[in-house]
Specification:
The complex is a heterodimer of chains A (205) and B (650). With 205 residues, chain A is α+β, with helices and mostly antiparallel strands. Chain A is 51% helix and 16% strand. A five-stranded antiparallel β-sheet of chain A has the order 3-2-1-5-4. In chain B, 10% of the residues lie in helices and 42% in strands. Chain B is globular, with a radius of gyration of 28 Å. Classes of the chains: A alpha+beta (205), B mainly beta (650).
Amino acid sequence: MKSASIVMIIGSALLLGLFVFPLWSIKLEAPQYPSGIGMYINLDGLEGIEKHDLQNIDGLNHYIGMRTLPKPEDMWEFSVFPKVVGGMAILGILIGLIGLFKNISPKWFLGWLILMCILGILGMYDFNAWLVDYGTNLDPKAIMKMTDADGNPLSYKPPLLGTRHILNFVAHSYPHTGAYMMGFGMFLTFVAYLIGNKKMKSLKT
Amino acid sequence: MNKICKYVLGIATLIFITNCGNNSNTNNSGAMASSKAEKVYVAPGEHDEYYAFFSGGYSGNITVAGLPSGRMLKEIPVFSQFPTSGYGYSEETKPMLNTSFGFVPWDDSHHPDISQTNGELDGRWIFINGNNTPRIARISLETFETEEIIELPNSAGNHASSFITENTEYIVAGTRFAVPNPQRDMPINEMKGEFKGPLSFVSIAENGRMNLDFQLNMPGFNYDLAHPGRDKSHGWFFFTSYNTEEANTLMEVNASQNDKDYVAAVNWQKIAEYVKNGGGKKVDATYAHNVYDHKTHMATSTMKEGVTMVDPREVEDAVFYIPIPKSPHGCDVDPTGQYIVGSGKLSTDLSVYSFDKMITAIENKDFVDESYGIPVLSYENTLAGVVKQPGLGPLHTEFDDKGNAYTTFFISSEVVKWSLETFEVLDRAPTFYSVGHLMIPGGNSRKPFGKYLVAMNKITKDRYLPTGPELEHSAQLYDISGDKMELLYDFPTHGEPHYAAGIRADIIKEKSKKYYELSENEHPYAAKSEAEAKVTRNGNEVHVSMTTIRSHFAPDNIEGVKVGDKVYFHITNLEQDFDVPHGFSIIGANTSEILVMPGQTKTIVWEPKKEGVWPFYCTDFCSALHQEMQGYVRVSGRNSNTPLKYTLDE
């Protein structure tokens, strides 16, 4: 049971990487931006890839009537997400620590993982909803009102995951280091569950 | 018989040379031509390998080109007003052109030189001299903007400048037109012995600040060019002089009578030490020192008083004259510091002096004469050798990294390559036409980059499509990496480049500034956000602190300005991105536009003369809505009561 608990501790501790590294990155490319322009989505707010990228993205977006990018105080997510992630990391580590000293069922590990998955899906859902709102809820006085081939207003929503052409830009939206650490950590907690399960079975026989 | 043989051989050689010329002509249109094209071709989006900084001569500025492409990258305003950016027109930069004679909006820029550390180009700054109203400017190679200009008092015709010692300790300025020192009202034809040719030594601080440390009050000859010692001769400076006749009229004849003029060898380290220990005499002088600050984005001009004047006879073993074939131009020191190449422009030979021999001659007090109390060394005993009959009208020499020298010949219109070991001519290449100086990147330092040579020509004639009587000067690029020089390319330059400085691009390109940090802007009238934009009145002065961002001004409607007001438009560019300047101009302004870089504040003055509603606009095509980037100022009558009001989108 010891090794499973250590893996559990490591796995859930990897969540803490989100406090250091970005969760997501959105990069924009266009001919007149040879080195690109973009932002990191951190747990507690947005950050330009280059020093003034947020201001410059806002500068571009104002032509098509998009709102300015949110400051940390503009969105509840930036204060709640750190608490949720921090709380889950602590919870996972606690479960692991208990497992180190006492025999607990590996189902606790699985339970933690299921809870984390649910929260993750909710987070993604929320993130996507924000992207939709941000990309489609435009200023009626926008300088440029673009429509698609059917005459519907163009959506400027960046993709949740992947690459998309938006006017003269190509937008790339991908998870970043923090997310990869979280993903790997979650995988480790599943490994912890499997190891624990195996141990339990061998104990029983 | 012997004579006949020589003639036959001579004619045979001529035929051979002519044939060679023909051969190379046919090669030009063949396969060789394409390989030359490849050597200068810089593909779209690719960068040049070298920066070249050409003096603008009577443009007063510096133009920056890339090598090998010859593409012009920028013109840096230095001594001349430059409406393209508003330099010398904006309130912030007008003080840069202040002198003890008042505002002097032009000069004749001559010899750029890049700062050095241990005799190698370090790419911090480039300096250049103004010849007409003696000045030296320092230009930052981070911002490519002129940061400092110092005036040289007591001098006239600052031609032997702006050459830098190998750790950027000192930069020199000369006097090409001997003048009374101090200036006074006296008959011109009594100049002999009365006029002086002061040489100025300007020290450079760690942060680049220039300080006129002392002036060496030399006899009244005309000091033409200079070169600091390198490596083993570090601590010395060499100046050529002409008109040792001290003629004051019809100089082309009367200053060409003496068979030899002088190279002045100056041990500046000794004199600097002497001055440091209280030597020299403080004399009256008034000169301007102008400094541009990148935090306030403003220049300030300070009038300085007094200078330390050193009599060259009072410092022991510090100043000597060496005879040189008449009316010399360049005296150029090779990378080892051992050889000083004197170009007597009316002589057919090149005199190469040995630094070691010079020191020995000084130690042995091997003097042949004295000129106004300055010992004259023997020509023969300081000579390392003579390059015999290399061409006509030698002017200037630079060096490669393989022990070769390259000298320009104005009259025979060619560049000649010769060996520093044997003093034999190795190769010659024609120039088009009448070459002045040449430039090998790093070619005046301890470490030349011996790949390219640029010849700067004085006469253009038929080289390009004709453009009326006035033509830009022509430059030629040669590949000097092989045994023979190969002419690669021909390109026009701006103004009259008297000299250029070149440096490997990678030494400076990474640190080139992209924009100014708005948060660091300390301009007293900067509006760092639209909320800070405002209009204030102080008597008949109106100060508009206005912002720009794609694609509008804030405010863009202003009312309450009156006829007779003096309106200061302080424009702050809020952009924080590379290459997004905004411009500003207003109808009837008696000045130029201003081009404001991201994060910067610039000011122009407008004095409205008529009632009405007058437009202003952005002069730089900044964005898709650039055309809409405009606004209005309502001007009311002198005694009207229109309240001061400024708005955006109301």
